[in-house]
Queue: 2 jobs
Job 1
Amino acid sequence: MFKKSFLKKLAKEEEVSFTFLENQLRSGKAVIPLNNQKELSRPVAIGEGFKVKINTNIGLSSEEENLQKELTKLKEAVRCGTDAIMDLSIGGNFRSLRKKIINTSPVAVGTVPLYEAAIEAEKQKKTFEKMSFDSIWETLKRQAEDGVDFFTIHAGILQSAIKYLSQNKRTGGIVSRGGSILARWMFVNKEENPFYVNFDKILQLAKKYNISISLGDALRPGAISDASDNLQFFELHVLGELVKKCRKKNVQVMVEGPGHIPLDEIEMNVRLEKKICHQAPFYVLGPLTTDIAAGYDHITSAIGGALAAQHGADFLCVVTPAEHLRHPDINDIREGVVASKIAAHSVDLLRFKKEREKDKVISSHRAQRKWKDIFPLTLEQNKAKKYHKKIKSSDICTMCGNFCSLKIIEKCGLLDTTGSTKSK
Amino acid sequence: MFKKSFLKKLAKEEEVSFTFLENQLRSGKAVIPLNNQKELSRPVAIGEGFKVKINTNIGLSSEEENLQKELTKLKEAVRCGTDAIMDLSIGGNFRSLRKKIINTSPVAVGTVPLYEAAIEAEKQKKTFEKMSFDSIWETLKRQAEDGVDFFTIHAGILQSAIKYLSQNKRTGGIVSRGGSILARWMFVNKEENPFYVNFDKILQLAKKYNISISLGDALRPGAISDASDNLQFFELHVLGELVKKCRKKNVQVMVEGPGHIPLDEIEMNVRLEKKICHQAPFYVLGPLTTDIAAGYDHITSAIGGALAAQHGADFLCVVTPAEHLRHPDINDIREGVVASKIAAHSVDLLRFKKEREKDKVISSHRAQRKWKDIFPLTLEQNKAKKYHKKIKSSDICTMCGNFCSLKIIEKCGLLDTTGSTKSK
């Protein structure tokens, strides 16, 4: 699947042994999203035993069609440390944007091919409900050739689930966009999910291009009161079966997860996914630990994401402050990426010596007020630089004035400064 | 300590039974910070079995002396839902500010009386190292008479700890401002901690005014690499003894805690405090789960605070994005308070039916795009209102354009709308 030299280099970057990386890939506990038509300057491994990775969603909406803005978001997300980009365009000149993203992104690029098929059906047949698998298939092929590294495929939502949902209604219904499109399609056409029916064919294409499949959770809870319900777990079992199918065909696969989940159900959700889906990497969309914080859902999601990652989630999807409210702008993207990076790093430092060392070094600099050394090591340094205010360029900042605990303690000679020297 | 009618009213607001409130107060598992010289329009109980409470720090620094600005912060913090305010002034016209805060705050007001004593010593003797217990005592009396509801008293840092620290240096040293002032004082004067030595006298004053004692953690870790070290836990044991002394004298007491703590040590820290400090309410300053996110430490702290509260922490101190960088402005205060409220509510909804109902109602409105009903129920509605962008006042927002999962699902009749109707 991958060349030995490539894996050796990646293992080094991931701070694991080559053998470990090989074993995790072989067992399916980790994936490397990378279309074999191209290379990436920053490929990553996602899965158990690796640093927690994050993905940032960008893309055109039918109401926001500025290509340049989306490319600027890509750049900002990469600067702030995203490990992957999903182009979730649902309007505008999406094909041109996708090509530009793939050409410029140093990190893996994912898509939800269903969107393009739905847009085409709207254009040609005036309604996405008339979309055929043939057009889905054309989309899949086009995107594979373009060089997309991973596809979100909502193959787990079945007619039986729609029937169940009609008798057991939910507060949030279906909040997955792909899920809702498919549910409506299945509801109107009375046919089974076309991605489920044609899954083997899709796997052949994925195999040909080494595209990783990310099994979408069409039925993820979009409200705390829908969390961990039968629908969610029914779909999870279907995804577990599909994971097996992928493995049989040697296609890399990960599984997407919730959503809105209360704090005390996050660990269970992660353990359940790992069990039911045969240890496939878990890609969580949050989880958001409350529904009432619109405008601040990057924080809600950082709480849930940190906890999920601590218990084994491998890949966090960035949620921005714009979630539930509007198409995110570049500031939203930055705030969201940083929040997710905080969650990821908070877990990485528990597992990787070098990650923990970063905290020690920055704290050592901080204790000695070596601001110039602090900034470059800060997760996102522009804000820190802007915020830090010295007074008359002296060693006094506006926070504590004359009563700076750091300076007071320094006078007593009670500081360990080895962290700071080590970094030199 | 409190009138029955007052407790009955408070029990109702806290959604617990009167008997439960009485029992928790009697056993010391909960406190109600409230100076008996005055009343509060929004008093709260802090402790086991109650909703998680949050405190916001404001105050003048020697470099930021605008009283009006601090009073505006108080107002904003209260609007966003703070349950207490600490005036941590260390400069300017601090006495005037304190009186104004106490006169206008609907929520309990706390202070660190040591600061005033240190400022006075700087003024009169040119150095805080010459501060005497007499001046500390005068300060305590003055603040008690002013109507302060709770005092942070750093009585747990002892000479033995300073000696230990000089041989076992820390990356972050002592980051507690009160702790550093006392450490320096003890280091220079070679005397024992004056708050520890005179603790019984302080308790008499606290008893007289029903001031709650918040035992400060002078030795809290200010860096991940100092977390859960011997110094921190040595002090915790001293605090445990002091809790007993408070209880003997019928003085309400809570215990302050870290600080910078890695995710996987948070639960242990909470359990340990509850054990060593005889189930006294736990007031955490964070915990921050990484050191490298200056500018975004409200998020770092929301992660740690949520986890701490889930495992039993009762009172969260707001950390703003300005932490480690500058004196916070009003926007920092808002961002910080909202982040802490998210952490608190994420835990409250696990325990209180009415809190969980809030999530259901807002999600039900959201599924039906009833924006006018959503905003007032949002944790902080101004940002949500500003963010939400409709297109041509139609039922399309910039996020999903024509592919709105909520609208698609509505067409299928798959929504449970009971949450929305209940709220009418």
Job 2
Amino acid sequence: MPASAMDSLIFRDIFSTAPMRRIFSDEARVQYYLDIEAALARVQAGLGIIPTEAAAEIVRHCQAEQFDYAMLKAQTERIGYPVLPVVQQLVGLCRDGLGEWCHWGATTQDITDTATVMQIRDALVLVEADLEAIAAALAELARRYRDTPMAGRSNLQQAVPITFGYKAAVLLAGFQRHLARLRELRPRVLVGEFGGAAGNLSSHGADGLVVQAKLMDELGLGQPEIAWHTMRDRIAEVGCFLGLVTGTLGKISMDVKLMMQTEVAEVYEPFAHGRGSSSTMPQKRNPISSCYIHASVSVVRQHAAALMDAMIADHERSTGPWEIEWIVLPEAFCLMAGALKQTRFILEGLEVDVAKMRANIDLTNGLVMAEAVMMGLGRYIGRETAHDLVYDICREAIRQHRSLLDLLAEHPEINRHLDRAALAKLCDPANYLGHAGVMVDRVLANLAA
Amino acid sequence: MPASAMDSLIFRDIFSTAPMRRIFSDEARVQYYLDIEAALARVQAGLGIIPTEAAAEIVRHCQAEQFDYAMLKAQTERIGYPVLPVVQQLVGLCRDGLGEWCHWGATTQDITDTATVMQIRDALVLVEADLEAIAAALAELARRYRDTPMAGRSNLQQAVPITFGYKAAVLLAGFQRHLARLRELRPRVLVGEFGGAAGNLSSHGADGLVVQAKLMDELGLGQPEIAWHTMRDRIAEVGCFLGLVTGTLGKISMDVKLMMQTEVAEVYEPFAHGRGSSSTMPQKRNPISSCYIHASVSVVRQHAAALMDAMIADHERSTGPWEIEWIVLPEAFCLMAGALKQTRFILEGLEVDVAKMRANIDLTNGLVMAEAVMMGLGRYIGRETAHDLVYDICREAIRQHRSLLDLLAEHPEINRHLDRAALAKLCDPANYLGHAGVMVDRVLANLAA
Amino acid sequence: MPASAMDSLIFRDIFSTAPMRRIFSDEARVQYYLDIEAALARVQAGLGIIPTEAAAEIVRHCQAEQFDYAMLKAQTERIGYPVLPVVQQLVGLCRDGLGEWCHWGATTQDITDTATVMQIRDALVLVEADLEAIAAALAELARRYRDTPMAGRSNLQQAVPITFGYKAAVLLAGFQRHLARLRELRPRVLVGEFGGAAGNLSSHGADGLVVQAKLMDELGLGQPEIAWHTMRDRIAEVGCFLGLVTGTLGKISMDVKLMMQTEVAEVYEPFAHGRGSSSTMPQKRNPISSCYIHASVSVVRQHAAALMDAMIADHERSTGPWEIEWIVLPEAFCLMAGALKQTRFILEGLEVDVAKMRANIDLTNGLVMAEAVMMGLGRYIGRETAHDLVYDICREAIRQHRSLLDLLAEHPEINRHLDRAALAKLCDPANYLGHAGVMVDRVLANLAA
Amino acid sequence: MPASAMDSLIFRDIFSTAPMRRIFSDEARVQYYLDIEAALARVQAGLGIIPTEAAAEIVRHCQAEQFDYAMLKAQTERIGYPVLPVVQQLVGLCRDGLGEWCHWGATTQDITDTATVMQIRDALVLVEADLEAIAAALAELARRYRDTPMAGRSNLQQAVPITFGYKAAVLLAGFQRHLARLRELRPRVLVGEFGGAAGNLSSHGADGLVVQAKLMDELGLGQPEIAWHTMRDRIAEVGCFLGLVTGTLGKISMDVKLMMQTEVAEVYEPFAHGRGSSSTMPQKRNPISSCYIHASVSVVRQHAAALMDAMIADHERSTGPWEIEWIVLPEAFCLMAGALKQTRFILEGLEVDVAKMRANIDLTNGLVMAEAVMMGLGRYIGRETAHDLVYDICREAIRQHRSLLDLLAEHPEINRHLDRAALAKLCDPANYLGHAGVMVDRVLANLAA
């Protein structure tokens, strides 16, 4: 039985997803190895380096499900790396010793690194799909609630009104940046490895670089300018990308948790029977997905640091730092996948209590509109005077627990300029939303672009 | 198929161990829950809070293997935590509704936290056994090589001679400290949790604290002075302990890797057929276990930081930080177990090349003995004069690629005081080992104490 | 002008404190070096190793303010470590070449490590004083608000009532554990270093260990069992301690921030004119100190990981890992000091709005008392029936936006057993505080012990 | 006196550089604030929002050296942020109350964030210059040693020959990627902030976005699509970039340290009198700069994680996470600057011992050429036969401590095909360098592009 949260029989679909786990499963890893061995055989047969018959036989057996995993485990423990044991089984599966032509001129880390890059490529496809779905969900929220007032909060204090659509658009802009980052890193990161023991293709003849180029073509990967066995900036960059994206997921989960508080109650994670409720505390509506996101994000951030640690590789093939990636990369992607899924779940089904948002603005008896009133009144009595007057009235409102509007309407210096109806308009958050709507539109326009 | 390195069909016994994984497996976790429910039922029956018949029926069904894990998974995903689903299945297994008496007055986190502490307790037993085995192996090395000269190195430069036993004793002293830390943290950490929704036992009558005390007695855990649902220093302290211990394992693996270098070749990881060798590079003897240790250590260190992050818990029951522990704690223990196992393997079978150690000291043509010569000659010609003279001769030895001894023996100012035999004695590392042996004895004496 | 936040002319007393910075200042560091050199001279003179006259002259000049820091900087950049430059200046200050007797048989890292331990010792005195002050402030809050009801919160949802004193006592228990940790680590950590180039005192004669013992006595430090130049668990343990303590500070700051929210408004950081207020948003009362604490905690946690990284030291004197400590240790202590100070400031002057605490419990129209009502009613109509009935009434209360008490009092199955007065009693949080008070007393009793 | 390593009177130019510290100094920070205030005044005067006379007077006083830093410190401690205190002093400096027009419609975080971006912009200019200098130094090494054989090492074991130029080119390719990353992140990161209390420019009229656009033009920064007060991916991305670059610096320092070992002795940090030497151990040549780099890298990596932590910002203006950046960003840049400087120093003056590189290849009695011999012999006796035969001979060579060439030349199955001269050619590392040279050329060509 598994011991890690992401493989747990109970927690695995909470902290991860099946498609992502599949990419980093043992069988998939072996299949990636075999896809590379098959591609190498095809390329080398095409160049006349190995017999066509051998290539055909090798390709025919590059099926991970034919492999014996118990033997693979035992041999990996003995040798230290799983590539050679896979090759040995592959040789064994081929008839007439034709398998001896497989893995021609390759080194363990060539296969492992290239497989890792293929895992990253496939994993990033899943990540991108989730990023786009999240962006779409945020765009929908931004559109629908473009003009829905709520309290903007600074230092966990109500500050001035914003709209819920604006809040969504701020998040959306972040995902647009993440998608741009993904576009930029792909060509730099999705580059294979094929260089032999020290990377300089020394066991290859003059055709070494041709084999390398054709192999990468075959696999749909970029050709490396030079070996990167111990230059791990590409892998660490992926870790940073995961860290940056999960950081934004963490920000979303933080806001959702805060807005779900009993005392705030503005949005809710999607309801499902029994979800987040308590049998003895019927008033509770727990933010479940947000908790999972929070936790995963805290771990992925540290994984990013561990992947940077893995960069401190020695000489041409490193002694320990490389293996950091073996542990961390699958886990970071799996946790990330879980956090993305939970975030999608929240955003695609978010329950929004527009009335409560409006009601919360009134919690301060209108004080949250003080800045608006100052600006509005300034036109009549001067900015500074307006500021000082309104500030004094606000303190009085706090003292007397009365509404700002009432006190403004009673004040002789004010009601000579503005009657209660005009003051009520000034105190209406819907009239003090600034450029929230326009900003929403700008972000949505970027999306279309 | 699992996706994490520690559960991988291929890597799991490289990066972890079966006994440690077992403790953090789903089935074991459910069994810990059930052990607590059973103990609670027994205690409450003993106090007359629930019927004796109910307790007997509950205890009879507290067997993890009777549980349906697919259902458990589905319900956990719905509810957010696995405790209630376990309780519901337990209720279902009991006849005549007697199961309704189980989990009386407990809250989800009471069971989860107490189970976590029991996992920690059992995991620390495994850790302690490995720490003691490692200490024993180091003690054996310290004893055997107490007087075996080798180059002491500072800044990766040969400095002055030490003994290999001294090197082992320095490490051993660290493990003695780790064992002391373990002794100290146990009573503080191995404390259960039982407090209800907000920890104040409000759903219990006057006997709440009695139930709590008897429950902890039954489980062999300490009684908490007050709830610690959101005071996670105990758990983070365990994470720090794992981080500290693995730090020392990392130091060992670093030294072994460095001493195994082709150019140094003083010690080797234990040999096994094919282990760490290459089919085309027969000169290689790769440090396999050291690589695994290095990688695990780099990850556990980051896990320790994540567990400190989990301390930033909100109010009486936290919203996300707690779940960090669910991911990190099992993994930190599992990786630690793997690193301990690899370290034991190295130390219990370490191959030591005493002749090569001695030969390496001579690599510098005796310059590594310069300090010894300065000290020895000082008696005759004064300390400062001796220093300046020897320093000049050393530079000459570097320039001429000749041995220090030859140049010393030729020097008129020196050979008037000391003949070649006397100088050779000064240049013999075995005569300049300082208090290495005595220090070894001191550390070994601590072990006995 | 300084560039770091902790030395900044503007921020230094926000993120740190003057007494802590003093300990880690250049002048103090030099003075620690000189204190060790002076002690060594005294010890060696006492043992007849160096002339008494030399020792007197050396001791006389061991005054950091006599040193030229520009020269020290230049020489440190050349040599790589500041100890030798300090010794050279000391030699220069002494008359008649008597200074040549200073630093007799010591190595750079002996002085540096011992100075570091002395810095830690003095820094921990400051830390302990703050921990005790914080514990005292929490004890005062626990005592004063022992029976003051407030909402206990789980998953940021109101759960069941607790008292504010109980909340303080939960925190207080954590500080009691931190003080115990401090007591335990002191004898293990406050151990000096004196071993020479490779730690084995090879440049000393038979009296090496005697000098070591007397030197440590003189300095008030423990004698090491063996050199620890590259066994850095002691230093990393201090980092972990700082990480654990700041974790608890982070929990406090999180709770204060949440309780200061506009919508919660139960406690406030101490008021000072202009503090945390806004010129245009008069309703704001920003949690300033809590922000600083949050930030410092996030950084110290990472520093703890960096100090574990520093444990991966090579051979007898490490090549880079050691210098991690030079950067991290001063900063971790300084940030910690700032966070402790800010926490003291909050807790010693915390404004508590008891009425608002009580009012918040009523926010859910009494639903937060549902568990209490279930328990109370169970006596009359059976536990399960009571649960189902109350749960249904709660959902009705949510639907109708009416109070739980009203609906209970109207219900025929309920009011036949309990009249409105009796029901009101059940719904009174003050009657459902469980063992909160007793638990407070238990924790306070520990404090006295 | 400062307490941090980067501000230390002794260490500051070891762990940082003056130009980088200058950017993050208090005075520079104030000047950045003032530059923004001046730009804002100019823009608003141009748009007729504030009087031209006021703008002129404001701009005239935007000189950081006119400000009182003690007062600034005191007021910042009171208010919590330094921007308002700066504005207040600026107002005070202006005649006739004209200063009241400054900071019109701006909020504290607008100014702080924009200043931070300007600091990043200027700091990245310094970083880029160092990256280019390092790339140039590596290019020079790659060119000069393009065909200089040395042992390629895998798992710290000699594997097959490479060239030192190849080793340099592998590193160089990494810096080319870093420079590409820098180009990509600049337009995304170098974007200002101007949005008011909640980011939606609510205190501005219709011209809010026009002011924003013109202000960013004036400052040479990009205009934000929407506020990013609590979307900190831009800042965290910079942290990741620093982490990635320092990771590569760490790799370089690791290789230099390893190559400087007494037993390897292939390259040396540049020599300067007394640098890295010992007064009593004349054989030592310590890698000083490499140690500093190693340490800084370990810290910056954790800073990157802390900056990702800072992404978990609440609502519209965060409560603590933001302040993480205040501590971490200056330090990460300063440590990075120090590490870049030390790396430049090493690479621009690296001493390379070509003869020792060649001699080390011979350490294994030619075994490091086994793969080459297998490949060469395969042509005559078949690949598999060649492998088995050579492997056996290698083991014999190890057993007898004789050279591979001797044993090959003696072997009847071999010397019938190849005479000693031919075999010597096979055993010559210069003839088995694979595509090392071509790869060097490819990377150098990229540089030119």
